[in-house]
Design brief:
By secondary structure, the chain is of the alpha/beta class. Helix content is 47%, strand content 13%. The strands form two sheets. Strands 8-7-6-14-13-12-11-9-10 form a nine-stranded mixed beta sheet. The protein starts with 13 loop residues before the first strand and ends in a 12-residue tail after the last helix.
Length: 542
């Protein structure tokens, strides 16, 4: 029976078969639910106005705040759930079942009961998503809500403010709490259930570490008092408390500490920090990063190892929960690149386990597309097969090439060309993810060509410069095409990405111009010969 319902996301806790079946086309829903959850019915293509059994929604005792139960039998559809999030979760599960069986015109009877593994399940909207158009923004929000994330963190700044205004009505209907998040260590934010979403603030510059007492802590406690008077709670990052552990015992009970992780998948990252706050009964949320700084797509294994570490620590210590972050500064992840990691994280937070592969394309595309899971799984492993991430090879100086010269350039080129070949053989209708897959193929092809160009510079510089100019010009053209793919909706390049692309474009143009004269080529040879090969940790790629 569970295999029959493998398309469900997140996977439910308990599911058992019933006797007989019913026609999914005939199930009717109350008018108030059709109006309230119209985006959900549209998402699954279910009219909800059939002439068969009327779905009965009731609040049943003995169920938790987000717990629900569904019973589908011949002539009977009963949903037990409290109004709000539980009702939305129950309806989304029921609509998934109806949508899956609509083409066949028949579905088996079943009984389902479900509840979350982690109470606080947060996700940060990526900066590219927050800057997208309103339709794309609502689509991204609904996808996260369908994964049962009950807190959505929006980035600080104008994009986050616009996103908050656009999403607030839908968030209220679906029971999702909106946050505004600033990842600066001195950032503080209010959490108020029914108040207008406030922008996060930062403690004054220079307060931390000042002599004479602890002015940073006094400023923090002052903000806590302001939050209490406003009948709200305050969140703060753990960084400043971990700098001076005596501050931890002064944290008020109403405050919520966000304990950040990284994308390195070190299991001890959270274990070393959460015990400090737990010992003083401080409420805390663990914040794993899906993507390392500067990368367009994450290392999927590291991303999920970080999420798993956070979930295990939160469960062991009965912490408030987990907030999954985009991760780092720089260009930042593209939403399409992190789609599978997000999906797996959402399923893990709700169900305590991963979903079946068949469910991924139904979440991402709204239909079956078996190859999509294979492609995204492949992309999730690309980052782990070389000593560096793609950001190192992409944005390194093409003349000095510290990363690819230190590694084996032939291996790097072969690796990325094989990835391009793999993507070229996949013939799938990827829907909204098609733009990302085209960007990934262009990214890998460009890196392979650029690393090969850098590896051949010694011989190219010894010639008359015409081939060097031609190859540099070809790379400039390819880079312009890659930038165009990166800027296509729903992604929007942030300042970090624009700076990195600009710098690389300038480097390639400088090589092309210098190659035009014998003196220019001599200067390039001298610079390349005298430059030491830089270690990875000493040379940031942006």
């Amino acid at each position: 029976m569970k295999e029959t319902f493998a398309f469900l996301f997140p996977p439910p806790r308990t599911l058992r078969p019933g006797s007989g079946g019913l026609d999914p086309r005939g199930v009717a829903f109350p008018l108030e639910l059709l109006k309230k959850f119209e985006p959900l019915f549209a998402r699954f293509g279910v009219s909800g106005r059939g002439s068969g059994p009327q779905a009965v929604f009731q609040a049943a005792g003995g169920l938790g705040e987000e717990e629900y139960a569904i019973e589908c039998a011949p002539g009977r559809v009963v949903v037990s759930a409290a109004p709000g999030r539980a009702q939305f979760y129950a309806l989304s599960a029921l609509l998934q079942v109806l949508a899956f069986h609509l083409p066949a015109g028949a579905m088996p009877a079943f009984a389902l009961r479900d509840a979350p593994a982690v109470p606080f399940r947060g996700a940060a909207l990526f900066r590219a998503e927050a800057a997208a158009g309103e339709a794309e923004l609502r689509g991204a929000f609904l996808q996260l809500a369908l994964l049962r994330f009950n807190r959505l963190a929006l980035p600080a700044g104008a994009a986050g403010e616009r996103a908050a205004a656009a999403l607030a009505p839908l968030a209220r209907r679906l029971g999702v709490e909106l946050w505004r998040l600033d990842d600066h260590p001195d950032a503080l934010g209010l959490v108020a259930a029914d108040a207008p979403l406030p922008a996060p603030t930062r403690l004054p510059e220079g307060v931390a570490g000042a002599g004479g007492g602890d002015p940073w802590l006094e400023a923090f406690l002052g903000r806590c008092r302001e939050a209490r008077e406003a009948q709200a709670s305050l969140w703060a990052w753990s960084d400043r408390f971990l700098e001076r552990l005596e501050r931890v015992r002064r944290i008020p009970r109403a405050a919520l500490v966000l304990n950040r992780g990284d994308a390195s998948a070190r299991g001890d990252r959270f274990a070393a920090a959460w015990r400090i706050f737990r010992g003083h009964q401080v409420r805390q949320v663990l914040c794993p990063a899906l993507c390392a700084s500067g990368r367009f797509l994450p290392d999927g294994r590291s991303a999920m190892a970080g999420v798993e570490s956070a979930c295990a620590a939160a469960a062991a210590a009965r912490l408030s929960g987990v907030l999954v972050l985009e991760g780092g500064d720089g260009p930042g992840c593209l939403p399409g690149g992190a789609a599978l990691a997000r999906f797996q994280a959402g399923c893990r937070l709700w169900s305590g386990r991963a979903s079946a592969p068949a469910a991924f394309s139904r979440w991402a595309l709204g239909r079956d597309e078996p190859d999509l899971f294979r492609v995204c799984s492949f992309l999730a492993q690309v980052e782990g097969r070389l000593p560096r991430g793609h950001d190192g090879y992409l944005f390194e100086d093409p003349l000095l090439a510290p990363f690819s010269r230190q590694d084996d350039p032939r291996r790097v080129v072969a690796h990325y060309r094989k990835a391009v070949q793999y993507l070229g053989k996949r013939e799938i209708d990827a829907g909204d993810l098609a733009g990302f897959l085209a960007f990934a193929a262009g990214l890998f092809a460009f890196i392979a060509a650029k690393v090969e160009f850098s590896a051949r510079l010694e011989s190219l510089l010894a010639e008359d410069g015409r081939e060097l100019q031609s190859r540099a010009a070809a790379l400039e053209e390819a880079l312009a095409g890659l930038r165009g793919l990166h800027a296509a909706p729903p992604a929007a390049p942030g300042p970090g990405a624009r700076r990195d692309f600009d710098r690389l474009q300038d480097d390639l143009a400088g090589l092309r111009r210098a190659a035009a004269t014998a003196d220019g080529r001599a200067r390039l040879r001298e610079r390349r010969a005298t430059a030491a090969v830089l270690e990875a940790e000493e040379a940031a790629p942006y």
